[in-house]
Structure formats: structure tokens, C-alpha cells
User: Fold these one by one.
Assistant:
Number 1:
Amino acid sequence: MKTKKKSIAGFAILIYFLIAILVIVILKFPTADRITDDSGDVAEVKQGTELLSRYESQDTAAVEKEVRSVRAAVAQRAALAASARGESAGEADLSTAFAEAVVMGDSQAEAFEAYQVLPSQSVAATIGRSIVTADEDYQETVGRNPRQVFITYGMNDCLIYNGDVQKFIDAYSDLISRLQTDIPGVQVCICSIIVPSDAAVAKKPALAGVTAYNVALQQLAVQKGLVYVDASSLIRPELYAPDGLHMSKSFYQSWAYYMASCAGLI
């Protein structure tokens, strides 16, 4: 039995390694047809050999984490490219990708359903919602027993906590722990708070703290070993809605695709 488990683990590591190498090759050599014998190629081969040795000494979880990081980088580039063209990234695959996932949060999450980017069963959100008023969304999410939960709270919390980042993080951490207890095996993903426009911050100065809240959320993700979905690089001035707080449909399409890619759903 132990031999069989080791064999399965070894096979999983090999698969993850091959995927990682394939992605790296595509990213670094998009036009290369073959490897020549010049010094640059020899150095790359040596680098690949060293990478193989490193993977041989890692366990499956570590390799999977690194591959997920590479996939996230690729997903981000695809989403950025689509956003720059005013298009969506992977729109046709979203319903399938989120079939067993739920995005819970405030109006930013509600927009996925409002714009029909995601089906209603994949969204548990209400306009004006915050971490402290999320119980209804929480119960709805737990009732669906999803495999993945993406949390997008934060915009309204910046106003409620008014700079008390640690208090916000404590409440956020508690929500994650409850989800992991009530939905055994669930994959929780932390999403960055959408950075508002300068005009919106001028009207609501407390929103100037969004960056600090996002730094804390990223640190929380690292501490808990969770996926952190940073949407900041997808934001462009022309994608803001008139209020400077919400975004256009194309942004939410790219953001959903990026979420799915970071979580390994596509």
C-alpha cells in the first residue's frame, strides 16, 4: 500500500513538473523551434537540470504550490492582455469553471451575477455587505457545499473599521476558519479589495486605506497557505464605473477568469 502511495505521489510530482517546465518554455521561448548548441542554450539546459534536481527533493504539495504560482502568472498575463484590448478572458469557460465554486462578498461580487458573468448559484453576495454583516451570505455559501470559496469583502469594511486593519483581519481570519470547519476540504481564496479611483477616495477619504488592507490580506493568505487573487494589475482608469468604486463588465469577466486560473479551476 505504501509503495502504491509513493508511486502515485511520484507520478503527481512528475506531472506538475512537466506542466511547470512547459509553461516556462512557452513564456521564455515563444518563437524557439529548437535548442541550438550556443552558450546561452547550454546555460538554459543546465538551469533546467538544476530545476529537475530541486523538484526531485520536494513533496507533492510544494510542487503543486509552485505550479499554481506559475499558472497564476500566466493567467494574469492573459487577463491583462484581454483587458487592454477591451475584451474578456476565457468568458466561455467561466460557468463550467465555477460550477462547484461560490464567490461571496459585497457589491463587487454581486456584479458577477448582475453582469451575468457568473450564474447565480456561483454568487452569494449583497450590495453593502461587509465582514461583520456577512452571515446571510455565509449561510447561503455553506448550504451549497462548494469546493472553492472566493472572498471579496473589504470595500465597505474600510469605511466601517476606518483604518483599524488588524481588527478587519481578525474578523476576516475568523470567517475563513468558520468556512474551513463547516465545509471540510474547501479551498478558500482571498481576493484583493478593488482599489477605488482618486475621485472616489476624495469623496470618501477612509478608502485611501485600501492599499494597507490589501497588504494585510496578502500576508494573511501567506500565513494560512491560501491563494491570494490580486486584481490590482487588471484595473485601468477607463474601466471604472461613474462612481469610481465599481468596474465595467469586461473587468469582472477578466477578474473571474483570473480567479479561476489562480485557483486551478481552468
Number 2:
Amino acid sequence: MITVTHDRFALREAFTISRGSKTHADVLTVRITRGGAQGWGESVPYARYGETLGSVAALIETLPEAIGRDALQSALPAGAARNAVDCALWDLECKLAGKRAWQIANLPAPRPMQTAFTLSLDSPDVMRAKAAANAHRPTLKIKLGTPDDMPRLEAVRAGAPRARLIIDANEGWTPEMYSDLAPHLIRLGVALVEQPLPAGADEMLAEIARPLPVCADESAHDASSLPALVGRYDMVNLKLDKTGGLTEALIARQAARALGLQVMVGCMVGSSLAMAPAALLAQGADYADLDGPLLLREDRATPLHYDTQGLHPPPPDLWG
């Protein structure tokens, strides 16, 4: 039996990017019950990709009850619907076999990993205060993507002078804006820039200088999308809601490395259930950006554990 529910988790504070703000994480939870066991998974439908809670739930409801992971890959396209079902099937397989997901995937046992912490878009004063409050974290990811980004970036660097900085423009810049900002990004010690130009209008990245690494997010989806990014990007941000689950994400990770692309493993704003399979994918990645639960005021009954070592692998009673 496959069931789909809508769950809502309040955020600690409003989360803002160049496309808008949210105060809650609205997710779909899929539960699959077979053989006396139940597996579950979570996805975050994303309007940027034409997804809604209703459209994703409707896709899931078209699936046969006995669907398996192999058949699922062709039954649904890459996206949030396939992700929730795929991750639920992984969890179900673990419960039926009495094994952990990393054992089924023939991967090394996962270890704690450092993850970036995201500062959402706000005024320079507010972003400086937030940077100062999180200056102890090794990596801060700053949401930008407006014509007035330099004061914000300067403020964050002043608030967290020793943190590694990642900039995420969320498709908000033009080639001219990026070229103008790039020298200042280097001066302020920015480690990389994520999706500076709109997906579908990023050809210029192959023609203009890239003085610091550029990571594809909205331009990168499943493994088939990656070859076209070579020469434009240096890194890809793999998210389970884009790849359509852990099964395809593991293939995409291998494909990215074969193409000479570095790998970031990121997330939408979701609960610990969404981050749990991504934590397995992020093992050995160049960057992990799995801070979704840190942005929540409420979470799953068994949440992921974060401490000075970073994000710890999920316990079996959460997932996998």
C-alpha cells in the first residue's frame, strides 16, 4: 500500500531567496507498507520546476502498489514525486532485509560530515547579525541574487571573518553583474558561486572568465543533464528532489565525477526525513549543504543529530 500525506513544519524564521519567502516547510510524506514493514520518504515540491503539492501527489497516486525501485525510474520523471517514492522503497528494503541503506548500496559506512549553514536574503544589517551569530560554523551559504548584493556580502564577511563563504545567486544575476562582482567575491574570500545565471541562459559561463568555481543548481538535475554543463560549470549541486531519489542520485554522482565535475549535495527546506538519504549521498562529496532541519522550529519525532562534527548519519528508526 502506498499512502501520501501533506506535512507542514514551521521554520525558526522566514527563509528568503531572490524568488520569494516562506515561513513553513510544506512536504509530502510517502509511506509504503509491504510484508509487515513500512518504509517512508519525503519530498518538497518546488514551484520553480512546475511542481505543487497536488501535482506531485497525483503523480504518486498513478503508481501500481507493487512498484519497485527499478521500475520506478521509468514510471515517473526525475523530480519530487519519484524522490519520495524512491526513498520510501529504500527504507522499506532496509527494514525487510534487516540491513542499512549503505550496506544495500555497497557503500562504506557513513561518518559525520560538515555541512554549510544558509543565511537567507535580508538587509545588510540583519545579515551581518546572523553571520555573527553563526560565525562558529565552518561554512556559511549566503542567499543573494539582487542588484544590491555587495553591501550584503560585505556585511556577512564582517560578521563572520573566518568562515568559508558560498554564494547562491538563485539565477538572479546577469553576465554583466557576475563579471562586475567576481573580483570582489575573490577579495572577500568566497569559495564558490552557485547558479549565478538563469538555467537555460547560462551559455555565457563557457565564454566569460570563471575566476572562482561555479556550481550548477537549477541547471543540474539527473545524470542525463550533466554532460551539457561541462565547460560552463566546475561543480554540480545534486538534490534528491531534482534527481528523483537516491537511486538516480548515486548514478548522477558517479557521472559527475567521470565528467570532471565536483559534487555538492544540497537540499530543499525539508525535515530530517528528507536529509537522511541525502546524508548517504553526501559521503565524500566536495561540499554538503544539508542544513534543512537546522532551519526548522519543529521536526520529525526522531530528528537527525548535528554537533561540532557536523551532520551525523541517520539512525535506523528515522530512515535506512
Number 3:
Amino acid sequence: MRIITVGLIPVLLLLSATFAYPHKGSKVELRIIPDRGGTFLTIPFEEFKKGNTSVIKKYLEARKSENYTILIKNKTPDRIGVVIAVDGRNIISGKTSYLKNNERMYIINPYGSLNLEGWRADLNTVNRFYFTDEEDSYSVRTFKDSSAMGVIAAAVYKEKDRPREHFKKRESKKNTFRAPAAPSDTRDSKSLEGESAGTGYGDDTYSPAVRVHFNPERTPIEKILVKYEWHDVLCNKGILKCGEKKNRLWDDYGFAPPPPEYVTR
């Protein structure tokens, strides 16, 4: 699932990066940014260690038809590689992702950040992410795959000793890493929210990338998993407390309690 291999070194993708200040805590910061402004409600779920990998799980309240961007900031002084999957599909290749180190990944410079806006179509174009019903999602419409529906996942890999650049730049055939296009867009025909939220294959947008060498370590240092759901689903699962708010005067059907230390005669 690598783009090109020179020796043992995968040739991967790099987007132009802006720089962020380092923070304590996890190795990366991952945020889901809505196009319409504001923020998505995010609820921490659990954090644990699995071998040498820190795992962070969160819930996110999705908004129907909202385009979104995955923002990732590198908090370390080293280059890192990040495998990113949406609904179980690698966002560069469109292939089934298990967040492994042999998959296509984005490279982030020390203390840099990336804005990932969609499914990679070629070195200059992505098709936008947007929240939609499961049936309209890229994963289901294109691959009939709902095995990891509603999950935005990132696996962070450290780089092995960087080799010296003694190779000639190779040109590959156009779109050799392209994510397969989804069927014609039907997002406007969806009127009811399904039980599960998914991510669609939206409008294309300019997003330049270049190929670079990166040799990842075998296991990730961190995984971040964001499970996004519609508001009603989060309520039904008890992730959000969505019961009706009581009126302190109208809804009190109790009786007058006795004062403290009152003795019944």
C-alpha cells in the first residue's frame, strides 16, 4: 500500500506545514474543524496504554452535511508520520486501513501542523469530507464497507534514522495512489438522519502535496480515535445527558419534608 519504495523507505506525502507551539501531554493534537465556524462538541471517553502505544478515544457530535477539516499538530521536535483513516478507509488511498506502518501516510515537520480537508485524489486535489448518513458515506457507497463507520482515526509513527538523500527523484504514473472516486454525489437527496453518521466524498478542492522519504518505526507511539455520532444517537447512548430540564416550581410533586431532628408524636 506504499506509493513507491526505495530500499526499505516508503515514499509518502507531505503537505505544506505551518508551525505550532509545542504543548505538554500527547504527541499530537487532533481537532475536527467545521467549515461553518464554531466548534464541534467533543466528549473525552477514555485513555489507556496498549503496549508502547498511547490510545485516546473521544466522541464528537456530528452536524448533517457539514464540511469538516482534520487539523493535526505535531508537538514533538521530530518529524512524524500519521496514518489517517475515516470510516475505516485510508484517506490517501481509499483502501481498508488498519493504521499500520506500511500504509500511506502524511508527514508532519517538527512542531508543524496539517489541515486535511478530504480524500486524496491526486497530488493537487482532495475531495472534501462532509458528515452524512451511512448510506451516503464514501465507505459504504464505494466499497460497501461499514466495518469502522463513524470513526476518524490517526496513528502516529516516529521516524527511524533518516537516510541520506542519495537517490534520484522518480516520477510515477498519474493517480497511482488516488482514492477511488465515489458514485455521483447524492448528498442533497438525503433528508433524514440515519442511525449512524458517515463521511461523504464531496467537492474537489486544491490541496498540493509532494512525495518525501520516511521510514516509520514498527509500532505507533499514539493512536487517536474520534467516534462521531448524531446528537440523538449520543443522547440514546447516554454519552450526552439530554433529558428534559425540569422547572423547579412546575415539576415538583413532592411533599413538605420535616425539619431536621423532628420527632413524630
